[in-house]
Amino acid sequence: MTDPNPAGGPVDALLLLSFGGPEGQEDVIPFLENVTRGRGIPRARLEEVATHYRHLGGRSPINDLNREIIANIEAELADRGRDLPVYFGNRNWTPMAEDTVRRMAADGVRHAAVFATSAWGGYSGCAQYNEDIERVRQQVAGAPTMIRLRQFYDHPLFVERFAADLRRAIDAAAPGARVVFTAHSVPDAADEVAGPPALGGHLYSRQVQEASRLVAGAAGVAEYDVVWQSRSGPPSVPWLEPDVVDHVSDLATSRGVRDVVVVPIGFISDHVEVIWDLDTELVDEVRELGVTVTRCATPGPSREFARMVVELLDEVESGTTQPRPGSVPALGRTRDGARCGIGCCAR
Ligand SMILES: CC1=C(CCC(=O)O)c2cc3nc(cc4[nH]c(cc5[nH]c(cc1n2)c(C)c5CCC(=O)O)c(CCC(=O)O)c4C)C(CCC(=O)O)=C3C
Ligand SMILES: [Fe+2]
């Protein structure tokens, strides 16, 4: 078996591997078909999500945000006198990972590090990216070896940047506003098997809880809630709850809360789940209840975030791990798509 945590040695390129998003109205349906291929998402949900993308002009911000992250990483590397090419590839939309890796092979890249743009363990945040790496390496002759940077839910730079933005949001909101952390929901069954079984499951929700605790602590917030958003799948299938809209509505009706600060802890940047599901849907739904929502910024486009990526790259090349403040494991540093452990995220 591949050593799941190998000391990497020097790499000759970095690949930022992400989800991808449409960049025009005509891309919306083909993109959604790529995302949901074989995943049992009801057609009605697809139509609904398509309307969100259409309202945004058919363009997801995700690719531009990732290009911004790459530019910041390049600047951070240049500051360190390091001349390392940074490539961009996606699972669901152009630039597709297989095309990028083909170009990397043609450019002579032999050993690549891979930054997958999710902080989390679990199938959607981690294992599915390992599947992507495995598939792409099978598709591309002469593909480089690919070693991933680890999960970063508790990286001090990630936590500190979120905490600083949370302080700013609290200062902008009415005094005493309730702080609500939100992350992408997943099916209960997926969370149960998230991480290697030996660690007891629920790696995703445990990391989200722990990241929220660390950010709240760093921002001096004593009381807060952790909730979930953007569920899909048939209503008969249980997903992590409570939903953010239900929760904020409940705070308003049963506890008289009028002001909330929403922290999109589950998202590195202002993805569609943030600018639509929170800034549009949540805001509209709770306005009728007299609730004002102040939304905390996301850390992705910051220089701190780029510095974190370069520090994670240092860890890969040196085979070390910096001290971590979190008490939940951070996995994901595996080679060529290997899972983080036996039976990890088994579906
Ligand atoms: C945990 C998690 C993250 C966070 C970790 C990470 O960042 O990776 C995440 C991120 C994202 N999810 C995204 C988009 C979508 N996710 C979908 C569907 C699903 N997501 C799931 C989970 C997650 N998703 C799950 C369990 C499904 C059900 C189907 C399945 O099991 O796969 C669907 C299908 C329609 C729908 O059902 O909503 C879309 C369009 C985008 C891009 C947004 C943009 O364009 O800005 C991003 C960053
Ligand atoms: Fe998703």
Automatic annotation (TrEMBL):
Binding site for Fe(2+): 184, 273
Binding site for Fe-coproporphyrin III: 60, 129
Name of this chain's protein: Coproporphyrin III ferrochelatase
Lineage of source species: Bacteria, Bacillati, Actinomycetota, Actinomycetes, Mycobacteriales
Keyword Metal-binding assigned: yes
Pfam families assigned to the protein according to its UniProt record, in alphabetical order: Ferrochelatase
Keywords of the record: Cytoplasm, Heme biosynthesis, Iron, Lyase, Metal-binding, Porphyrin biosynthesis
Family in the record: Belongs to the ferrochelatase family.
PANTHER family listed in its UniProt record: FERROCHELATASE, FERROCHELATASE, MITOCHONDRIAL
EC number: 4.99.1.9
InterPro entries: Ferrochelatase, Ferrochelatase_C, Ferrochelatase_N
Task performed by this protein: Involved in coproporphyrin-dependent heme b biosynthesis. Catalyzes the insertion of ferrous iron into coproporphyrin III to form Fe-coproporphyrin III.
Native source organism of the sequence: Dietzia aurantiaca
Cellular location(s): Cytoplasm
Catalytic reactions on record: Fe-coproporphyrin III + 2 H(+) = coproporphyrin III + Fe(2+)
SUPFAM superfamilies membership: Chelatase
Pathway listed: Porphyrin-containing compound metabolism; protoheme biosynthesis
